[in-house]
Every structure is written in C-alpha cells, then in structure tokens.
Write the structure tokens for this entry.
Amino acid sequence: MNRNLQLLWNGFIPENPIFRLALSLCPAVAVTTSVKNGLMLGLAVVFVQVFSSCTVAIFRSFIHPRIRIPAYVIVIALWVSVIDMVLPVISPEVYRQVALFVKLIVVFAIIISRLELFASKEPLVPSFFDGLGMGIGFLFGLCLIGAIREFFGAGQLFGLDVLGFKPLLVMILPAGGFFVIGFIMATFNYIEYKLTGKIPASGGGH
Amino acid sequence: MKEIFKITISLTAVCIGAAIILGAVFTQTEHIRKEQEEKTKKQTIEALLGYGPGKQAPPSLHVFSVYRYVIATPNKERMLAYVLPVKDGGHVILEIDLTGEPRRVIPLKAKEADLAEEGLRDRVVKEAIGKDYQVTFAQALYIADEEGKRLGYVIPSVTQGFKTFIHMMVSLNPQLTLNGIAITESEEDPGLGAEIEQPYFKNQFEGKTLEQLKNLKVVKEPLPQEYFTVLEPEKAKLAGLSAAQVKEIRDKFKDADIFALTGATISSRAVLNGVQDAVRKFAYRLGVLQAAIQKKNIQTAF
C-alpha cells in the first residue's frame, strides 16, 4: 500500500486518536451527546489538524527546537481563529452550530501531539495525510460515541426519533460518555488481542 | 547567550507571522460579520413579533430603537439618558434623573444608520450630552408599531447562565404579556443546557402575564407529552392537531410553571430569572419614560 494511504488508514483505525492513543478524551466525552455535535466538532478538528500539520511541516526548519511547543500552540491558535472568523462569513447557519466547539480546539492534545510526533519531522505531503487521517479518525470516533450515546440516551439519531422513548438517560450525562468510550476501547483491545495474540500495551491519556 | 537571541527572534517571527495573517483575515471578514449580525438581529426581532419565513413583515411594521445610557454629571450625579426617535425623522436625547424627573432634552443630528452602530453612536451621544459627562451605554429597546398601533416591545437581555452569559430577547405585547423569547447567544452545554434554544422550552414562556411571571418557578417534573407536542409547532403539525386543539391544550397549561430541562435545571432557572428580571425592569422603566415624555411634551415617532 502507498505510504500516504497507509498514513491515512493509520489514523483511522490502528492509531485512532480516541480509542487507541487515548488522546483528547475530554472533548470526546463533553460534546458527544448527539451524532450531530460529534460530526460538527470532528469536521472542525479535521480542518485545524490538516492546516496546522501542513504549516508546521513547511516551516519546521525555522522553528527553533527549544520553543517548538509555544510555536505549535500559536500555529494551532492561528488556524482556530481563522476558522472562527471565516466560517460565520461563509455559512452563518453552520457557524451557529459549531461556534462553541471551534474555540475549544486550541487545547486538544491530539493536534499538538501530531505536530510534535509527525509534522515536525516529515515533509509536507506525508504530514498532510497524517493530519487528514488523524482528523478523520477523530471524526469517526466522535460520531461513533455520539451515535451510541444519542441512541441509548435520547432514543434518537441525528435529532430524529428512532425509538420514541429514552432507554438509558445516563448515556447523555457525562458518566455515560465514560462508559461508552471505555467499552469501545475495550472492544478495540479485544479485537487486537484476537488478531495478534498479544495483550495490548496501555496507551497514554490526556 | 547567542542561543537566547535565536530563540527570541524565532518566537517573535512566529508571533508576527500569525498576527499578520489574523489581521488580514479580520479586516476582510469583520464588516461582513457585522452586517450579518445586524441582519440576524432584525430577523430575530421580526420573528419575535410573529413574522418570519412564510409570513413577510408588512411595510406598515415599524421597529423603533430606543437606546438607554447611564450618565454621570461632572459633580457625580447619576442620571439616565434615552435616545428617542421623534416624529419629523430626527432623534432627541431625553435625560431623566433617578427620581424619574425629566431634565434636559437635547436634539441629536445623526442618521439612523449611524446610530445603529455602537461605537459611532456612543461618540455622537457623548458629544451631544457634554464632554465632561461620563456616558455609558446600557441597553437597547425595540418598540414595534403596526399601522400606527402598538404591536409590542422587544427587550434584549443578558443573564448569567451555567458557565457564561446567556443573551436573549424577550418580546412583550402592549399589555406586557410575554409573546415569546429568543436565545441569541449562549454557550450552554450541547445536549443539556443548549436545549434552552429548543421550541419546547422557549414556548413555555408564551402567554405568561406580568402578574404570572412574578411568581413563576422552574419545576423539576417531566414535561407532559401532550404539552410537549403543542409546544413544538412541527410536532403538532405531524400529530395532525388543529389550531383549536392546540389552543385547548395550551389553555390547560396556561398557569403551569416552567418545566426544567432534563439535566439542565440551572440553565432553565437562568433563563427564567433573566426573563423575570428583564420584564420587571422594563415595566418600571417604560412607566418612567412615558411619564417623562409626556411632561416634556416630546412628539416621539412611536
């Protein structure tokens, strides 16, 4: 498989930011009360991750290693602010939905960790695909958690009534988010154990 | 020593680069964003007055903006100043002291469009009142007339929400009964507090009178299904309820308290407090303002 495609796939499942790397769990719990929220935040993250990865990859030789972290934070904040200003002009309706989430992205661990681990060492094209893959992986994770929580917590999907009643209200509350992420993570680990026969090492957490 | 310079220059360059990009984007987008904000505000006000998609606002509908300023005279006396539109097309500033007595009436030569922009308006008002006065903008009020008759009032209001402020607009009819509310800006939690923007919550305020509102509470009870259906116009349409049936169910819950949102009692209470506060103060201020206008015999446009 082509390396770029492999990078894309890598962020999607083998190194999924939420379920495998266990990064950015706070937003994953906080906003995934419905699929729509997950989708909106996920899209915003894809944009910021791709733009930040590309910027850092282009300017990586100019950034002094000892100030790389503040420089990365400025790059992320820059793109978040740009999206925050451009989106209301392009589409005020979408902005109304995501305004709350966009500003949160500055502090997402997944973005800065990809800049540090990947974009600061690799050229533009692989960095782009790595950023895109990680962003899509994050988007997928948020949608999956959102779908499970919305279905069981509110009996709905995308705001439409599916069940007509609310089976488990706890799923909508923060505690439900931890349950869902825990169970999905366990499923991922179980599948890995079945496939490789090795007990997965524990990931980091932020 | 040499390294510290390199670090400083590198970080400064990053910051300057980011600042230039942000500045460029800001100057390109700011005026469009402002225009859209004005448009959204106008639409919100019209929607609160009962006009929206599918029901065009008639040309006889006039929404007049009244701006309230808090001023401090050079000898530290505090007063209120209202910017009022007058009949012949201009504006006047009416000063009212804290006991409700009208003071000076100052004619204001400024165009309507200039007054709509906050920064510009503040400057014009300060110039008219006097250089040595302290002038602070407090609030805008919107008075709506249709065919020369009073249609209602729309009051913007801010209240402390769960974490940050909830901005809303409250619409009242001439008898000061609630027509409805709209949440214009809030950062409540999605799925929980953000539900205050849903019709099934907002519409519970509809039709509450000034008297009822004083004793209104938030109750932690499940929202009855039939009430929920009529509160959501879409759901009522789906259920095939006729206008008369909707009215019948609404009348049943006429005196009901506000049903708290599941998992967001604080946000629900915040909205109720904000509405109560806004309406109470408005009712008082309107009385004072109307008395002052009569005493000074100002021919207002509304």
